[in-house]
Design goal:
Strand content: under 5%
Order of helices and strands: HHHHH
Number of helices: 5
Largest sheet: none
Number of strands: 0
Length: 166
């Protein structure tokens, strides 16, 4: 099995766990609110929020590779293939620039908030905010691969065969 496949499996497993934790915490919090014989759950909302944010940042890199992010191609379809390639390259470079800024400031945000503690879970917020630079690093990695593909072959790579349509 290739490194790329292991990488995909690890990310998908982490997203699955994070999403499952989010769903479970939301369900437990909702049930505890309406079923009076259950104890009050004070941490459910925080776990749901943190797990949801981690899920989004972890899966964003794979979404870039699969072309699953929202895009409007109504105007670029009217252009010649050469212009389409230049527009795609410019867009990916701008997105990479933004993601690199997100990476740098995500590290700063995480470091600056290591002392802050979340109210219900009493977790260090700097560790929760690590999802920003980790997600930005994963997106940067995928964007570099997509940019190299555009430079070599002319257009972004097609989504994998196992990718569900957006």
């Amino acid at each position: 099995m290739t490194i790329r496949r292991w990488y995909d499996r690890i990310i998908i497993a982490l997203v699955f766990v994070s999403f499952s934790v989010m769903l479970g915490a939301a369900l437990i919090g909702t049930l505890a609110r309406y079923l009076t014989f259950l104890p009050v759950i004070t941490w459910g909302e925080e776990v749901t929020r943190f797990a949801g944010i981690w899920s989004v940042f972890l899966v964003s890199g794979l979404s870039i590779r699969r072309g699953a992010h929202l895009g409007v191609d109504m105007f670029t379809r009217l252009m010649t293939p050469k212009i389409q390639r230049l527009v795609a390259l410019a867009v990916f470079l701008m997105v990479l620039g933004f993601v690199l800024i997100l990476l740098v400031y995500g590290i700063v945000l995480s470091a600056d908030n290591l002392a802050q503690i979340s109210p219900a879970l009493e977790w260090r917020m700097g560790l929760v905010y690590l999802c920003i630079p980790i997600g930005a690093a994963l997106m940067s990695f995928e964007l570099v691969i997509v940019i190299i593909h555009v430079l070599r072959r002319g257009m972004p790579p097609p989504p994998p065969a196992d990718a569900s349509p957006a």
